[in-house]
Amino acid sequence: MSASPAPPLLLASTSPQRRAILEQLGLPFDVVAPDYEEDDPPQADAEELVCRHASGKARSVAAQAGDRPVLGVDTTVVLGGRIYAKPADAAHAEQMLEELSGRTHAVVSGLCLLTRGWETVSAVATRVTFRALTPRELAWYVSSGEWEGRAGAYAIQGRGAAFVRRVEGDYLNVVGLPASLLVQLLADRFAGLYGFG
């Protein structure tokens, strides 16, 4: 008798990057847009903030989950204790990138896995070092529009890769989903069901 298939995760996100990472990992999933309003005060504690947002996103769609585990994720960028959330406009994006230029920042993600019986929330950080950027490079990148909707105003999986000198930790976390943390949680909580553990 064959084992019953694993229930798809319910991803509380419309991010194409998060969908692509789940596909890369071979995980079954459905997508529902979260009904959750984010607030990103620049001086907030980054880990506490992303965990709160991840949990809020997951809980906002839990009523639609049925027997499916719900996955909520939130990611932000931190430099010198300051949070760099999504830029408001092109000038704001350029200012962010100028401040990240030649320095090492942290990409911090909160991940919430939620079922009817339990909720687990964890955070993870990846350190990213930018090389020094010239005004011409900043103008080139900002004009591309790739910064829109991106914490820290860049996409490492796109043209933003040109700015990166070094990544320490989970690369996929910088793309948008802390894959190693998710796999560990699935292995711990659902040993063997999704192929892990």
The helix/strand class is alpha/beta
Which CATH architecture?
Alpha-Beta Complex
Task: Compute the number of strand runs.
Answer: 7
Main beta sheet strand tally, sense and closure: 7 strands, mixed
Identify the overall geometry: elongated
Query: What is the chains' assembly state?
Result: single chain
- Average of the residue pLDDT scores: 96
* CATH class membership: Alpha Beta
Helix content: 25-40%
Nutshell version of this structure?
Helix content is 31%, strand content 24%. It is built from six helices and seven strands, in the order βαβαββαββαβαα.
Question: Keywords for this structure?
Answer:
6 helices, Maf protein, 7 strands, 197 residues, elongated, 7-stranded mixed β-sheet
Describe the structure in your own words:
The protein is α/β, with parallel strands linked by helices. The chain has a single domain, classed as Maf protein (Alpha-Beta Complex), CATH 3.90.950.10. It contains six helices and seven strands. The protein has helices at residues 16-24, 46-61, 90-100, 135-144, 171-175, 179-189, and strands spanning 9-11, 29-31, 70-79, 82-84, 104-114, 119-130, 164-168. Strands 1, 2, 3, 4, 5, 6 and 7 form a seven-stranded mixed sheet that branches. α3 crosses α4 (135-144). The protein is elongated. The two termini are 21 Å apart.
